[in-house]
Amino acid sequence: MTIYDVTENKKRMAVFNVLLEEACRQWCDLLGDAPERKDGEQFAEFFFEVFEAKENEYMEEILSLD
User: Is the CB of residue 30 less than 8 Å from the CB of residue 58?
Assistant: First the structure.
């Protein structure tokens, strides 16, 4: 998967945006317990783990709204 695969599909882009926000919230929620996260290093890897784990679930929700 590349970013182009995501941006060329409106529904997949909507899922991407929702999951980016969710990953950011999860990352920030743990800053108190993991101060090493403050520099943001490894966030991209964390985000794609969340994306891979939840993309299908969120896509099903979006498709059910149509």
Answer: no
